[in-house]
From TrEMBL:
Cofactor requirement: [4Fe-4S] cluster
Origin superkingdom: Bacteria
Alphabetized Pfam families for the sequence: Fer4_13 (PF13370)
Organism listed in the record: Lactococcus hircilactis
UniProt-listed Gene3D superfamilies: 3.30.70.20
InterPro entries (alphabetical): 4Fe4S_Fe-S-bd, ET_Ferredoxin
Protein name: Ferredoxin
Matches recorded under SUPFAM superfamilies: 4Fe-4S ferredoxins (SSF54862)
Domain 4Fe-4S ferredoxin-type: 1-29
Length: 68
């Protein structure tokens, strides 16, 4: 599945890293980034923890990208 990060919405709460530490990491200022790339969209394995991280982001800074 593909996930999009919207850094302007991130409040650096840390929740996504708690839920999916292998997917989400942070810049020095605490704003979310992917663990493996600094791109704002990435293809990641479909996984319950990652889906939970996306759904529980309090500001919707993480979004599932629908693919056709
Ligand atoms: S859960 Fe959302 S607001 Fe919190 S650090 Fe992750 S992306 Fe940012």
């Amino acid at each position: 599945m593909k996930i999009k990060i919207i850094p302007d919405k991130c409040i650096a709460c840390g929740l996504c890293h708690v839920n999916a530490p292998r997917i989400f990491d942070y810049h020095d200022n605490g704003i979310v980034k992917f663990y493996t790339t600094s791109a704002l969209e990435a293809e990641v394995p479909t996984d319950d923890h990652t889906i939970t991280a996306v759904k529980k982001c309090p500001t919707a800074a993480l979004q599932l990208v629908k693919t056709k």
